[in-house]
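hey so u asked for the seq, here:
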Amino acid sequence: MDDGYSVQQTAADSAETGGLDTLQALKDGDTFLVADPWGDLKGGADGLFDRDTRILSRFVMTAGLARPSRLSSGVSRDNVFFTAHTTNRPLPPMGGRSAPAGVLHLERRRFIWNQRLFERVRMVNHGVEDVLLPLAFDFGADFADIFQVRGTRRETRGTNEAPTLDGRRVTFRYTGLDGIVRTSCLAFSEPPARLTGSRAEFMFSLPMGKAMDLYIECGLDACATPDVKRWREHAVAARLAMRRRRRRGASVRGPRSPRFNAWLDQSRADVALLTTDLPTGPYPYAGTPWFSTPFGRDGIIAAWQMLWLDPSLAKGVLTYLASRQATETSAFQDSQPGKIMHETRGGEMSGLGEVPFGLYYGGVDTTCLFVALAGAYARRTGDLELIRSLWPNLIAATEWMRDYGDSNGDGLIDYQRAAETGLSNQGWKDSEDSIFHKDGRFPKGPVALLEVQGYAYAAWRAMAELGDQLTDGRARAWQRRADEVRQLVEDRFWLEDEQFYAIALDGDGRPCEAIGSNAGHLLFTGLPSAARAEAVTRRLLGAEFRSGWGLRTLARGQARFNPMSYHNGSVWPHDTSLGVAGMARYGERDAVAMILGEIYAAASHFQMRLPELFCGFEREPGEGPIAYPVACLPQAWAAGSVFMMLQAALGILIDARTRTITVDAPTLPAGIERLTISRLQVGEASVDLAFERLGGQVVVMPRNRVGDLKVVTTR
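ran it, structure tokens below
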């Protein structure tokens, strides 16, 4: 996912500062912050952003004349607080007194709530005498659009006015080329000894053994005076809101394994962090820092990963995307009537049309996925009331698939960008070099991607199933359309010599015979025959795909294979999770548990937080996976991957119409002997499922059943 402006552009800058994996991210709603491990904003990707505009671009704390020495720092497990513990370097003489290094504990603790950054700087004197501490903050607000921050050059931009000062406050003002005046305000609980438009200087007298607090706030509107009461009240509100998001739906707990549970907890916390409660319901934003906004494809996949545990995400995603469905044709926006949104942005450049991403539809797969998710949601919940309300949107989406998605009338969904400003590749592998022929040549358009045909197959089947339930007379025609798509894929994409599917067809109908992980997505939809699914599974589990940390996006040995690339040989956890779920659909369980264990091992090396992607190098004994330097962290569909893979390993299927939970041949990763699913709800009924390895098999024991609900086990 790169919305036309590849994150690879920032790799060199990121490498110099330690990479995005070293940035500390906080988020609430449409406001997010990324800072370095000291808590400083120093440029590059750093900043406090609101709706894709950077409202605080610099914020650096010094003690004495130097940056403090960092002891430790990080984000709390629930993703609410960032805390940096630092200590002073030798302080300059003040009034004949000086302090040696390491006598002051300087703690920076911050959170974001209601479009505002709250920070507390606690200063504790552990020395044997009183200390005079010169503390200073350098700051600035450039109001850069997020695309500027990512490296897009602008010929001109608006005007930054001189900051205005008010005792303990600084107000920044920028008038954009769109005529909109954007402001932000930085305020301190104590009046600085010296305050300018870019620097605040304090002189604190710290008695021996005593502590002192400085409170700071930054937000869009005029700042109230920060104080301990505001800090505490808003901190409690932020933590309670996060707790509510984390506790939606069922919970999963492992055995007495702190590390496995830490992975589950971190993944659930990351999904909660990235989920924004919109008027249409909860929506998982794609990731920070570059993708903290609704994306169609990412939101759908993340909601699908969580569907068995928390259907509210799918409901929120479907409702929001229906409200943004295209109604007109625009080459600039890559839109046609019925098409589902790829992404939306709120910054100045998007508003002016300098980039097309204010409301952009250049995703060939999102419309099919939207319909398919609606079908999966209905099976999981039985919520036909929502489906009836979305029925006009679902019909419009299928009409797009029929009339616009199939540009050449061959029965397959294809794409070719309508304007040069749009994405050249419009599937999930959307970097410019991700789709190619066996010899590395790029195909002419329009391009029909393999996995998109699987999504279309799932969409037509979903419409047939929903049509039956709603007594729509078109249901049989939709099922015939699904059968036709299935046959077309089997006839035109299958490579007999490779025993695999081509990654795409080019504009002349010739297969692009590159061997990629896209076939795993096809398994997820259930399109291949059993024999071909077995052949694909066997190859995906071979050394050319399996790195030991998950499945590579491209088979080793293919043209353009590069384990350090964005899409051509790296490992994306969400991609692996879809492939794993696809294998499970055809009865594979042991390999699913094995790959889940490998991804768990990778997560252990990434402090239990899976990044967007990592390099696809072979696993070596005693070494960890190699990070991709500009991977988003956290990323919603990376965080959701563990839950989709767990469902696949446990063989859990939920059918709300029959009020049945089926558990088919469950298995667990090596070393995990027990697992409990609590408060798994189907309609008004609920049950706990306890899995345990006994005598070489994993068995399930239903507990605490409430209401009319059947649990069926099969092998």
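The first strand starts at residue 24 and ends at 28. Residues 4-18 have pLDDT under 50 and may be disordered.
lmk if thats what u needed
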